[in-house]
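Fold it.
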Amino acid sequence: MMQGLPLLSLAIWAPIIAGVAVLLTGGDRNAQAARVIALIGALIGFAVTIPLYTGFDLQQGGFQFVEMRTWIDTLNANYHIGIDGISLLLILLNSLTTVLVVAAGWQVIESRVSQYMAAFLFLSGLMNGVFSSLDALLFYVFFEATLIPMFIIIGVWGGPNRVYAAVKFFLYTLMGSLLSLVALIYLYFSAGGSFSLFDFYQTQLPLVLQVSVFIAFFMAFAVKVPMWPVHTWLPDAHVEAPTGGSVVLAAVMLKLGGYGFLRLSLPIVPDASHLLAPIVIGLSLIAVVYIGLVALVQTDMKKLIAYSSISHMGFVTLGTFLFNAQGMEGAIIQMISHGFISGAMFLCVGVLYDRMHSRLIADYGGVANRMPVFAALFMFFSMANAGLPGTSGFVGEFLVIMGAMQVNFWFAFAAAITLIFGAAYTLWMYKRVIFGAVANAHVDELQDLNAREFLVLGVLAVLVLVMGVWPQPFADVLHVSVNELLAHVSFSKLPAQ
C-alpha cells in the first residue's frame, strides 16, 4: 500500500467496478455514455498502476504492495496479493492495453457497446488478479475467469466463424487447465493444508511427483502461450475476434502462460523443470522456426500476425528454460515488447479492415498512396516485428539468443534464424499491401488515420522506440526478481535419500 491506499486491489477491482457501471448504462441508446464511462474506468485502472511503478523498490527482494485478507477460512485460502518486478511490468502492460483498446473501439463498435466495453474492463481486472495472486486457489480462479470475457468478445463481436473459434478457444484452454487444478489440490495437501504459493515453494517432493506436477502445469500454460503443437486454436481465435479482442489476446492474454511458468512451474518443481527443460526448449525452437515458415504462406493478414505471435512467444519459453539471467530477463522483456508490437500490428490491420472489410493481402496494394501517415507507422511496427535494432523487438530476442549461446551454440543458431523469417514474412506482407500502384477502386477511396487512430498507434510507437533505445528502466525492475527466482530454482528441493 501507499499512503493507506490498497493500490494493487484498486488495479484489480477498479476496472471491474467500472465494467459494472458501464453495463448499467443500458442499451445502445446510451452508447456514448458507455464509451465515456469505459474510458474513464480504463484510465483510472491505468492511473493506479503508475504508483506501483514509481513506488517500487528496485533493490528490495521478495514481493511488494502485499495485501492479505481471509477469503475461504475452511480451506485456509486467502485473498493474498503482491507483486515483484516480473508481475509489475505485466500489470502495467495490461492496464495500458485496456485504455488503448477502449479508445480503438470508440467508433468501430456500434451494437451492444456497453457489453463490449464492459467485457474488456472485466478482463483487465481479472488478468491483473492473475499477475498479482500469491494464493494458488486465487490464482486459479482469476486464471480461469479470464476465459469468460474473451469467449464472449470472440463469440458475439467476431467474424462469420466466431462461434467455432470461441468454442475452440474455450475448450483448448479449459481442458489444459483442469490438470493444473488437480496438481494444485495435491500441492495443497502436501503443503499441510495451505494454498499459499510461499508454502508451495518450500514443499519438498520426490522427482517422480515433481515431474507429474510439472506436466500438469505444462498442459495449462503451454496451451495458453501457445506452444507448438497445441497452438491451433490461436489463428482461428485471432481471425474471428474483433480488433480489440485480437489486441488483448496477443498483447496480454498469451502472457498468462509465460507468467504461469515463471510463478508456478519453475519455483514449485525446480528439479522437474531442469529435467524436462530440453523438451520445452525443443518445442520452443520448433515454434520459432517452423511457425515462422508457416507464417510465410498466409494470405490473411490477421492469420499471418497470429502465427508471428506464436513464433515470437517461442522466445519466451526458450529464454525461461535456459536458467540463466540473460535468457530469463530476455523472455520477460520479450513478453512486454511483444505486447506493444503485436497489439500495434493487429490495430493496423483493424484500421484497414474498418475501411475495406477485408483482411486478405491480395485485396490491397498501393495503400501508401492514399494513407501515407498510416503507411509510415505500419512500416515502423513491421520493422519492430522483424526485430530491427533500435526497436523493442530486438532487445528481448537478442538477450534470449545471448542466453542460449551460454547453453548451446545450436540453440542460439536456431533461435537467430527466426530474425530472417520474421523479416521475410513481415516485410513481404507489407510490400504487397502498402507499396506499388493503387490496386483497385476501394483502395483509391481510403482515408488516412484520424486523430483517435493516430493517438493510439502513436502511443505504441513511442513505447516500442523508447524500449528499443533505452531498455534499462524495464530491465532494472527485473534484476532482483529474476536473480531470486534463479537462485531458488538452482537449489535442489529433492528430499534426502
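Strands lie at 64-72, 77-83.
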